[in-house]
Amino acid sequence: MTVELVTGLMAETVRVILFVAAPVLIVGLIVGVVVSLIQAATQVQEITLVFVPKILACLIALIAALPWMMATLLSYTQALFRNIPLYIG
What pTM did the predictor assign? Predict the structure, then answer.
């Protein structure tokens, strides 16, 4: 295995991880900002108020995106396994 091959595999792995995690992270970010704006407008500064909506929104986003996430991860893993002879030689 060459350094370029390992670097390329690592870069592709990080890209797939970020691509798969992005929907849940973006939903969590949006819900956090919205709840923070509501807290700032109402001057209710309760720390735990952010967690319940964020957890629920992330759970819903995870359930909604799970088939796509699994398909993406399965195709990446299948491509890795198919290319094992290229990595060894």
Answer: 0.80
Structural tokens at position 81: 């396994």
Query: 16-29: per-residue pLDDT in tens?
Result: 999 999 999 999 99
Q: Cα 47 to the chain's mean position, in Å?
A: 24
Tens of pLDDT, residue by residue over 38-55, are: 988 988 888 788 889 999
Give which of 62, 27, 32, 61 is closest to 49, Cα–Cα.
Answer: 32
Q: What is the 3-state secondary structure (H, E, C) of the chain?
A: CCHHHHHHHHHHHHHHHHHHHHHHHHHHHHHHHHHHHHHHHHCCCCHHHCHHHHHHHHHHHHHHHHHHHHHHHHHHHHHHHHCHHHHHC
